[in-house]
Records
---
Amino acid sequence: MPLVLRPGLSWCLCAEQVVFLDLARDRYFCLPEALGDDFQHWASGEALGHAEQEALVAAGLLEPGEGEPVAATRYQSARRDLAIERKDIANPFDVLVAAAGQLRARRWLRRRPMFDIPASLAQHRTPRQGKPNDETRLHKIARAFLISAALVRAADQCLPRAIAVYRLCLRHGIVASLIFGVRLHPFAAHSWVQVDDAVVVGDLEQVRLYAPILVLP
């Protein structure tokens, strides 16, 4: 019986465990070792026995359907933090735009289930036709959001901040990725925006602690 990953699920390997983000239920969860091994065999394209398939379906991970196995989420490692590279590049207007964008993203998230976030953000993407990213604009955005923390609370607000930055990048024609990450022991989740190996918002030292589990391009 052909099986596909249930819609709304993405996964990664974190601390040698299979970890899932279930957008439909707005939760993260880990698999027991045996079930995680079976799931990895499926994800790598290996044939599974009937009992293993049934266990993965019963766990709510797979469902009947045609499609390819879904590999673990990966993304380029972050090496730069744009918010601290150019301390001379922000201006008050950019800071106000950053603060307002974060407040709008907070309101937007209160009205929208997590499952709708990828599709809703995708509506704002437009083809770039090979234009290079504007590095100066990226530094301005990153610096403005760092300074805006003095106006709008940044603690525990990683997702609205990341969404606000992602939208601003789209507005300026910048190819950015909104990344959801997870860590274990202790469990925590984080969201950030990255362009190639550079963190725009999310704090490089924090980002390095997390394994990407969902990437919105």
---
Amino acid sequence: MAHWSARDLKLECFPIVPSHVSLPWDAADDYLLEQIDLLEESNPTDILILNDRYGALACALPSAHSWVDSFCGHQALSHNRQRNGLSFQPRLTHDQAFTLEGISHIVIRIPKDHDLLREQLSQVGQNYPDAEVWLAGMAKHVPVSLLNWLENNAEQYQQLPIQRKARLIKLAGLKKFIQPTAIAGYSYNKLKLNAVPGVFGRHQIDLGARVMLQYLPQDLQGRVCDLGCGNGILALSVAQHCLQTNTLVNVIATDDSELAVISAKDNALRHGFDIDVRHGHSLSEVSETLDWVLCNPPFHDGHKQLTNIADVMFKDATRALKQDGQLLVVANRHLPYFPMLKRLFSRVDLISDDKRFNIYQCQR
């Protein structure tokens, strides 16, 4: 656990990341709070925070409202508020975040996916038209093209000087940002997969998922879980195959991203597939015993490349699978998953390796 001395807070990443790899706050959080401290003192409940990955800002501004797409991001927020003696904050859904009363200040940590930022600014323009908006991020992650777009469309634009490699932008008047939600998608094997902004791989099929689908077992039976489902491509492909072969399979899909869950549910409904889609961190919301787990784990958390999320997924799979249950994993070749899997499973077979991806089939 790390101590944020500027705010006298003890904070921790979730899933846990060593402090020398990543801290729950950065210089952009410091810079932002230096500028808006007076807001918390004058009217603490009129602030909405978006994309606060580990809840650092929500702990520093304890009366503000906060929304984060990640399920474990809200767990980080809850854990960090508890350890600092702050009251519990119920999780806001995406829709609830943009229907609050009396919001006049919006704080946005600039997300890696700039389509998501565009969508959030559109929602702010529609639902909080008079709000003052603060955008914060590390300068290396904020391209000039994004700054130009913001300046050209906001009625009021102020770019503060870079401090400690952090950038801060103040906006007001977002009428030009208002637009319909930019649904995007692709077709694969007679399936149409759509997704809202903020969902990984929404414009085209992820290359790892494409490789995994080539090795999807033809004899899947029982209860199958698509772990880290994204837009639902693996779960829908399983449901499609079972429908074509008249095989009875119970398909569960789960993802840490609320926006991914919304998209996967919509895709399943549109195709008429009976898929149980759940929002949770790894298998936190899956209590059933599983026959198969299909996993294309993320290896980035924001801008950082990490293996801690995959590690949690693999450990959860060992607990959830029945005896002799199977885990199928696709991974970029450079990722050190083989020794991680060997420690957890009685048998790990490399069933495919090409120039970019490995496919591991693991037996509990």
---
Amino acid sequence: MKFNSTRNSEIFVNFERAVTDCMPKDGGLYIPSESPDLRRWILYTNETTPFASIAGALTSACINDEFSPIICETIATRAFPFEPKLTKYNDRFFTLELCDTPTGSHKDFGVSYLVNCMETIFQLKGGNAVFLDVTVGELGATLARVLRGKKYLKAVLLYPKGKVRGLSESDYVWNGGNIYPIEIDGTEADCHQIVREIFADRALVEKYHLTVANTANIGRLMPQTFFYPYAFSRLKKDVHSDIYYAMAPGNYSNLVAGLYSWRLSLPVNGFICPTTDELTLDMQGQCTVMDRMVPFAQREASDPASPSNLERLEDVFHNNSLMLKNLVFPMHVTTAQIDDACRKLFMRYGIFADRVTSSAYAAALNNRDLTEDDEGVVVLVVRDHPVLSADYIKHTVGEMPAMPEKVASALEPTVIGKPLAPAKRDVVVRALDAL
């Protein structure tokens, strides 16, 4: 499989280039330039097929011109000692939980896959890379865990003041680890600005082999496409009607990943989500993407620090506009409807749902005319462990979910033992020089 920029469909790169030099020079984002038909393989899987096997097979099918099937299977096996969880509550309602992970965050899937792919690339071909990311919590804990023992990858992580969490002293570069944490005397926005400035300087990016571990990197986004074939492998035995996935848009990564799965011939009837300013309904009540109206020449470069996958979503719409109006179903939801959905999930099913999950369920409830046709099934995507939003849940339903030990460890405040750093890019350059 080749990849091209959202802003230039004429220049192609391979998977290795797309993940190691993840921000195209034209300011776009890398996207797959082709979609193999995997229907026969997807239909072959069943409820006994492990998630790692699905991930390995899909990796092989997509990038078999770069990695052998054995290497693809090895990458997936190393990346995924954990897997999603599909739970059936009744014949019409399921949840797809992405939070039974080491930190309780869905980010564990993408980061673990990306790191293991890149480590394999460098083992086979030589080279190295440095992740430069901003984090206020679980991303740092995830990277620290996955990078332990890696030989060719390190990370410089920027934290706003007081937000360092989930690290241990053995993770630090100066103690032989792979993480160089920098606590900035400023806000998260200050940290984002530093990363933007550095990635805007191509000489620095090339000198230090910089990349990111967020969804601006297609290698972080790609494994999210595996969630839906995995869910289908568990659904196919019991479900013989329409399948709809309900999810919150977030930065549009899970929705884009679902649409990529659809392009791989995943059996699915639609994706339901709350509307946003960019993803909304037109005058005819059909899905539309508002930013598509702004020419690329009038846009800023894609953000390497706090990415949005809206441009990737636009690309899918541009190529499949009429079809997608009957595949993506944004629904307006109010704050009251979101809170009511949270209470219904708890009262009906015993589910503790954060505000994000509750908004997706509210959108599904508002779209019952669609899902109840032909006895359609709704699969609610649960991205993160509810304990990460315990205050909202306590306020809304009156109870709090229990804190798993592994999540508590990822949230544990960490003292780096170094002075606060000023919000200047020179601080990061010095750290990169020290690696």
---
Amino acid sequence: MAVGAPALAGKVILVAGAAGGLGSAAARACASAGATVVLLGRKVAKLNRVYDSVAQLGPEPLLYPLDLEGATPDDYAALAERLESELGRLDGLLHCAADFVGLTPFALGDPAAFARAIHVNLTARAWLTQACLPLLRKAEDAAVVFALDDPQRVGQAYWGGYGVAQYGLRGLLDSLHHELGNGPVRVSGIQPGPMRTGLRARAYTHEEDTTPVEPAQYAEACVQLLAADGVRWRGKVLDLAM
């Protein structure tokens, strides 16, 4: 990369959950840093709005609507094939997609909702990562970054499948790090502080929750982990909630 070039110049970054609070903010930050951003999400109208804002900041993005709840491994393989055929490369995968229906006592919870939370927040991320690995391995330096929640908070009562999945994600991060430690693909996590998002609003009312900040405050940290300088966070979690 030329001296003074943006941190992600010439890179292709896939943002899963690009219509959400952190995902959309990170997508805009990646575009501003020179990346071609692939916007993955299930809410087409929101994705279109993110697309318009991202397109004004950097290279033309690619829109890829996909519902992670119903997507199969074959769907993720098709996504990876399209990225290779249309863009020729993939340098980073940022996982921001999340599913959370609200705080619910375990004894009263809907089993289907519990299973959906485990799938969207953990299994789907694993499947997507697995499908993208062959393409990521072709890059000289590639990054997989998982957005994580604070286990001390979501490991408390009533967080259900979402809280359980957060512990699983940290296990997935550690396992992938040890498997990929000698190759070009590095794995890390980012744990933002409280953010003003729809997901958080399902757990706290506005009156009792005065600490959240806009997700954009954490977007540059996502860029940092995806860029070459993020190598120092290989196998680690950047904890911004401290």
